[in-house]
């Protein structure tokens, strides 16, 4: 009797095993589909200097198998990871750390957010019963620039320079003056991106040679400010003559005067000295010397009446 029932038992057992395998396979497909659907992409913005907390999923550490953070900052990728059976890994070495909340949820902490922390943060968490992954685009909300103004020389022209450094996004600069309202947007402007992702903007304004009384004002606008930031640049009134040009002019005039004086002296000296012949003796030379002195004495006698009167007393 038991032998007669054996084929039926084997048949039912085989059918049940087949059904179990199918159910397991379907469950595996469902889990895989669930994993793929939990991959999300999002963007998050933070202020400079603030603490930043990034989470990958809401599972507790007791449920976790491992968590990996891959951080891409301008093409440079580093990794921070931790697992149940693995040693913690940190190839970033810049202060970021992976911690757990009091309830056991894992998160990535950036102690003081800076522009250099901007980038793409890829997170992957595997836990019992599933997994989760996320692509997070992390960036700064706004970063205010540092504003300064100065006066420079370009050849014989004075140039007012306004500089807004380290802002994100780039700042907007304009000049405002009291002598010509149409020059507020004049001048050349240059914007460069710094290595940390911020921008430095410079606007240069060539000043006229003669400026009436008044100051030059640099207006800087940036999304991080509600009001316009201004920097006043005092401009000395009067002609724009650089000291270098003054020195060059004085030296040039001195050289010209010295040259003219030398030419005059040379010409006068040549006129007084007559050419000598070989037969002449030294006596004519002394006579020339007397002729050189006599005109001065005769001139003094004629001009100075006191000298003439005293001379008459002794004659």
Could you characterize the architecture of this molecule?
- There is one protein chain.
- This protein has helices at 2-37, 243-272, 282-303, 305-313; strands at 40-46, 52-54, 64-73, 76-83, 89-90, 97-100, 106-110, 119-127, 130-140, 146-154, 157-167, 172-176, 188-193, 199-206, 210-211, 215-221, 229-234, 238-239.
- By secondary structure, it is of the alpha+beta class.
- The strands form five sheets. Strands 1-9-8-3-4-5 form a six-stranded mixed beta sheet, covered by helices on one side.
- It starts with a helix and ends with a helix.
The largest sheet, given as strand count, sense and whether it forms a barrel, is: 6 strands, mixed
Summed over residues and divided by their number, the pLDDT gives a mean of 74
What is the CA-based Rg, rounded? 47 Å
Percent range for helical residues? Answer: 25-40%
